[in-house]
Amino acid sequence: KDSRTAANKWLHQFGNPYRAVGFDHDGKVAINLGGYGTPETFIIDQQGIIRYKPIGPITEDVWHTEIYPEIKQLENR
After folding, report:
1. Is residue 22 within 8 Å of residue 29, measured between CB atoms?
2. How far apart are CA 71 and CA 51, in angstroms?
3. Phi, psi values for residue 44, rounded to 5°
């Protein structure tokens, strides 16, 4: 729910680790994706299909046990 300016400022200040960043001006995309609060992470395949949606913050443990294995599985399809 940040403004585009605030989001860009934050990404510039702390670094942008993302391949792509979208902006949901009126919040409808978040609702349609089942979003309900931050932080939210989506793993999306090359066809644009959401394949995995971990809930909560991405800790090192979550990265190693959930996120990374999902990404590797998608890479091997």
Report:
1. yes
2. 9
3. -115, 130
This prediction has a pTM of 0.53
Q: What is the pLDDT of residues 18-72, one digit of tens each?
A: 888 888 888 888 788 777 777 778 899 989 899 998 888 889 999 999 999 999 9
The angle subtended at Cα 63 by Cα 46 and Cα 10, nearest 5°, is 80
| Phi/psi at 34 (5° precision) | 85, 20
Q: Which residues contact 39 (CB under 8 A, 6 or more apart)?
A: 56, 57, 58
Contact status, residue 22 vs residue 40, Cβ threshold 8 Å: no
Q: How many CB atoms lie within 10 A of CB 53?
A: 14
